[in-house]
């Protein structure tokens, strides 16, 4: 068992991140989102790969023990997010990394966990499917078989835990229920490519999807959700492997969490105008939904109030 304390958004952008260098160097300078992301007033448009840090008290630990920290995904921007946020929140050890799928924006930061192992801890525990494990082994052979390392051999040390996508698994007492969703297709077979979202405590996390199968939706709706974290790449209709705003809103209404946060934005999504647009839905249909941003901190310690903050914004209590 575990008691959830908070969730920190380490990244909320698509694989390419925001800003795009091509927009910054464009003589026409017409991508307002990318250009604004480089300014203090537009900083919520600056987005790394989607990832969250989950912190909790493990009931197996003594009362005075430190909080446990588990990441979901460790993509290309893990290094940047960790140097920006870990010290601000007193995160030093990682008690696990749970991986949704083996795309670059979910696993390419694993090599950078080297800074933790050797110095802070002996190893990091990684929780992943066999399919993700196979890609990790192809991408980072030295992280799976240290005998394949070259040079000085200073590589990150991992313990891999293969999870069965049909069963829940625990990380230091926090239970993760895998939620299989479609995330585009295999180009070889044209069959759906499966990414795993998760339920942990009363939070549903679906970072990468273009379609939620009925059986997964039924599993999500079988329990009330306090927080939904949901893919929303762009305005309008679906992308081949991601939700557009229309799909995201449909799923938001259907799942009906206390509050929903969108992630995975492209540079066609301006945080500030989207926030304003979504805010209107609260008065119209009592739908609490907002774009997340890099650095957003959700204090979940109280079951009756949700507190949103970051080190560069005001604190907001969502009653
Ligand atoms: Zn741009
Ligand atoms: Zn992906």
User: What structural class results from the helix and strand content?
Assistant: alpha/beta
DSSP helical segment count: 9
Determine the strand fraction and express it as a percent band: 25-35%
The CATH homologous superfamily name equals Ribonuclease Z/Hydroxyacylglutathione hydrolase-like
What topology, given as strand order, has the largest sheet? 6-5-4-3-2-1-14-15-16
In N-to-C order, the SSE pattern is EHHEEHEHEHHEEEEEHEHEHEEEE
Arithmetic mean pLDDT:
96
Oligomer: single chain
Named once each, the bound ligands are: zinc ion
Q: In the CATH hierarchy, what is the architecture at level 2?
A: 4-Layer Sandwich
Shape: globular
Top CATH class:
Alpha Beta
CATH fold description: Metallo-beta-lactamase, Chain A
Q: Distance between the terminal alpha carbons, to the nearest Å?
A: 26 Å
Rg over CA atoms, rounded to whole Å, is 19 Å
Number of strands: 16
Helical amount among residues, as a percent range? 10-25%
Low-confidence stretches: none
Query: How is the biggest beta sheet arranged?
Result: 9 strands, mixed
Count of all domains: 1
What do you see in this structure?
This protein has a single domain (2-318), classed as Metallo-beta-lactamase, Chain A. The chain is 22% helix and 29% strand. It has 319 residues and is of the alpha/beta class. Strand 15 (306-310) and strand 16 (313-318) form a beta hairpin. The protein is built from nine helices and 16 strands. A nine-stranded mixed β-sheet has the order 6-5-4-3-2-1-14-15-16. A seven-stranded mixed β-sheet has the order 7-8-9-10-11-12-13. The chain has helices spanning 21-24, 32-36, 78-85, 104-107, 130-139, 141-144, 214-221, 245-255, 271-285, and strands spanning 2-11, 51-58, 68-72, 96-98, 124-128, 158-162, 169-171, 174-185, 192-200, 203-206, 227-231, 259-263, 289-291, 297-299, 306-310, 313-318. It binds zinc ion (2 copies). Residues 101, 103, 183, 208 line the site of one zinc ion (ZN).
């Amino acid at each position: 068992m575990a008691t959830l304390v908070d969730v920190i958004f380490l990244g909320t952008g698509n694989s390419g991140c925001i800003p795009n260098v091509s927009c910054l160097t464009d003589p026409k300078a017409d991508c307002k989102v990318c250009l604004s992301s480089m300014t203090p007033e537009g900083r919520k448009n600056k987005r790394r790969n989607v990832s969250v840090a989950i912190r909790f008290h493990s009931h197996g630990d003594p009362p005075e023990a430190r909080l446990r920290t588990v990441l979901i995904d460790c993509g290309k921007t893990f290094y940047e997010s960790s140097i920006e946020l870990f010290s601000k929140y007193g995160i030093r050890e990682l008690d696990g990394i749970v991986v949704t799928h083996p795309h670059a924006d979910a696993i390419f930061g694993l090599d950078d966990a080297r800074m933790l192992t050797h110095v802070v801890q002996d190893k990091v525990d990684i929780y992943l499917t066999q399919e993700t494990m196979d890609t990790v082994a192809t991408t980072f052979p030295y992280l799976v078989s240290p005998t394949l390392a070259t040079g000085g051999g200073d590589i990150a040390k991992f313990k891999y835990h293969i999870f069965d996508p049909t069963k829940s698994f625990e990380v230091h007492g926090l239970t993760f229920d895998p939620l299989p969703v479609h995330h585009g297709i295999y180009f070889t077979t044209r069959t759906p490519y499966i990414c795993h979202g998760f339920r942990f405590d009363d939070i549903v996390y679906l970072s990468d999807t273009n379609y939620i199968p009925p059986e997964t939706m039924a599993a999500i709706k079988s329990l009330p959700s306090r927080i939904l974290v949901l893919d929303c790449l762009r305005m309008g209709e679906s992308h081949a492997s991601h939700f557009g705003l229309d799909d995201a809103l449909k799923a938001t209404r259907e799942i009906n969490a206390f509050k929903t946060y969108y992630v995975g934005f492209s540079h066609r999504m301006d945080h500030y105008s989207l926030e304003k647009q979504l805010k209107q839905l609260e008065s119209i249909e009592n739908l609490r939904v907002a774009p997340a941003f890099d650095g957003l901190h959700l204090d979940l310690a109280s079951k009756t109030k949700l507190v949103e903050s970051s080190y560069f914004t005001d604190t907001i209590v969502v009653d």
